Input
Amino acid sequence: MNRATVVFAGLLLVATPLSLLAGRVWLDPASTPNASIILAELRLPRAMLAIVVGAGLGAAGAAMQGYLRNPLADPGLFGIAPGAALGAVAALWMGYAASPWLLPLFALVGASGAMALLAAIAGRTGGIALFTLAGLMVASLAGALTALAISMAPNAFAMSEIVMWLNGALTDRSWREVWLAAPLVMLGIALLWRSGKSLDALTLGEPVARSLGVDTRLLLWLLIVGVGLTVGASVAVAGIIGFVGLIVPHLVRPLTDRRPSQLILPSALAGALLVLVADSVVRVLPLVTELRLGIALSLLGAPFFLLLLLRMRKGLA
Amino acid sequence: MRLAVRDLTLAGRLSGVSFDLAPGSITAICGPNGAGKSSLLETLAGLLQPDAGDVSLGGQSLRDMPPRERAKCVGYLPQSHEIAWDVPVRSIVELGRMPHGDRLADPIDCALRALDIERLAHRRAQSLSGGETARVLLARVLAGQPRWILADEPLAALDIGHQIALLRHLRRAGSGGAGVVLVLHDLAHAMNHADRAIVLDQGHIAADGACEDALDRDTIERVWKVPVRWIGEPGHRALVTG
Output
């Protein structure tokens, strides 16, 4: 267990109880009426869902950056999140907004479709360049179909539902979403963690990794399925929450020896912490309606991305 | 463990290439740009699958060897000095042990010592000079204790001092029983430091044998199409044009 794992596990242990108390109404377990029901049925599942979603996105970001050997890589770029979003949008378009299971299931089907397309195009050769291009193609196709669904929404209510859902949030979620997402995300993180050693070898380039015995095709499959499960399940229960996968590995990297394998578990913990804290902040902000978590993280992520680009430009100069 | 190549064909790059290499010596693969040198080395390393023909190690075809078994026997050093992340030097050298599934300190320390980079072990990759990076990457290959070391242009981007030092390390590895195959552009280095030269021209073997024969004036003029002559004594040759 490296230093980053200990640090972020410790911070998560501190942040979780605080997040349970935070909200438009601060909870005092001793005096707030029905505190135990609010905690058990509202705050705790929401906090658990934030942890599950953040952990999945953080681990996926670390693995993708390691695989593409690029600190600007984000799992959202590779078609799985847009594929899941397209599935959810289809459910909303067909009027299944109120159905507790259909919307996340449609999203999982969308994520699986994106995974299958990625695997069909790039899975045979196992090449990184082809995988990246295939991901961009899947992402733009899913994005175009989502835009089409919005423009052809059957009514204004459906259109509003779609747009709201696309700006991810953890509002009004229950244990049902936690039980749906948690096993898939945990399995996904386990697969990504298993790819760690191969990602370390990839640090020296694809030919060296192959010469060291890395099966690059198996690695690609581990990543497609691992990212598919973590990101697909996260989008299915929370909508699009961007930038977590991009930001988190950068927060973790300075606390590790920078080997990709050392980043995956701490990035899962740091992702969980970031989403948990961000969700607590959007709850306590004094706004008329709650700020959508996806919007809040994008507002935080875009300047961070710019900062990264400026640092890279300075490095190149 | 002999490295044998039989009728190797790679569409558009190699055609009917055959040779047999014994361990314990340095073989230079030379040829003009586009002759197929790097493709040949990648095929010897098992990274490219030939369209026809076969590469075998100790009588076993590379095709039939599981990737990890092949990786234990063959250490491959590409021309690129790519190190994507700013990782510690020791962790780079440790990667050489990956096919063995261990991080044994002995071979890692031994490789660091052999290339005189023990003091760099805790430095970060991006703080290294070009010469230090080249030695670290070769140490990664040595840490795996491969029977064959295949290096593509290992002297490119190195100054003359580092070139000589690196060749000395490779010679020591050869003396230790490993076979060494180098793609070299510098014919004088090949002539002075290799035991055997294989000259490729447009995917075919143009000459193969002791360096004094395979890299003689006629072969160079025929393959590279430049008038040259060797000056100096054996082991200290220099190539001059005209």
